[in-house]
Amino acid sequence: MQTDAHIEEVDVVKTKSKRVLIVSDFHCGHEVGLTPPEWNPSYAADHMSKYRSYMWKKFDEEVERLKPIDILVANGDLVDGRGDRQGSLELIILDRQKQAEMAAQIISGIGAKSVFITRGTDYHVGPEESWENLVADKLNAERIGDVINLDVNGLTMNFRHHIGGSQTPIGRTTPLAREAVWNVLWSVRQGFPLADVIVRSHVHYHSFVGGPGWLALTTPGLQGYGTRYGERRLSGLIDWGIVVFDVVDKNDFTWEAITFPFPFPETSKV
Q1: Taking the complete model, does pTM exceed 0.90, yes or no?
Q2: How far apart are CA 187 and CA 183, in angstroms?
């Protein structure tokens, strides 16, 4: 259920294209979460340190290529939390305040003129205390919310972290189409902003669906391959990367999902 009818009007010049970078699912503190070099512990037998270094290098190079960035939306699950399901065994940083500091450092380094943050899942960011609020405070973010609507040069973009997932390829666009239908109904029945673009995260894969006048998509995540939960329970393909929009106006915009390959574990020789 949408709970926020307010649209943030980003200060833009109508004739100038604005670049919007969307990132999500850092899972800072996890052993395959997005990790800057100074936060990356290296142990003698820790092969994951090289994996984290690879992921950071790819992310950092792409962000530098995309600069300057006008608007950054961090779409939830920026920290991994306590890791209760795995007894914290997959965490390289257990202190959630430190996890929030790492996430804030990553976002600050992107150097966007305006920063907006949506809250992620209670399991990761806290059911009562929201560690993403701490991230927003450290950054002096424009806004943090469960739902955020942005007006970028006349293009209305609706952001929320959560969406249902699917382990079948043909089922992945269904939750997105459902979100679009509900958005129309909320607009007609309750006067909520009618979105031109709907953005969701959480599922760690990229998918999209749309038609004349509307687009709905899920963002790839920035947590790498190799969580115990994913390896044991999920078969579906995941994507690792970011999404960027260049917006001139409501009818003139381009977008791209930029994804990177995973360095998968080597096959055992017998």
Answers
A1: no
A2: 6
147, pLDDT greater than 90: yes
Which CATH fold would you assign to the domain 7-259?
Purple Acid Phosphatase; chain A, domain 2 (3.60.21)
Determine the average pLDDT of the residues in 158-179: 91
Distance CA 61, CA 86 (A): 32
Number of other CB atoms surrounding residue 184 within 10 Å: 14
What is the CA angle 245-251-254, rounded to 5? Answer: 25
Nearest-angstrom CA–CA distance, 124 and 130: 9
**Alpha helices (H) along the chain:** 48-66, 96-110, 122-125, 131-139, 174-190, 228-233
- 225 — pLDDT class (breaks 50, 70, 90): confident
Q: Radius of gyration of the chain from Cα atoms?
A: 18
CB contact at 8 A, 239 and 220: yes
- CA 227/CA 4 separation, integer angstroms: 33
Helix axis angle for 96-110 and 48-66, nearest 10°, is: 30
Q: How far apart are CA 128 and CA 190, in angstroms?
A: 29
Report domain extents, the chain.
7-259
| 23 DSSP β-pair partners | 74
Cis before residue 37, ω within 30 degrees of 0? no
Q: Which of left, alpha, beta for 136 (phi over 0: left; psi -120 to 50: alpha)?
A: alpha
- Place 265 in a pLDDT band, splitting at 50, 70 and 90: low
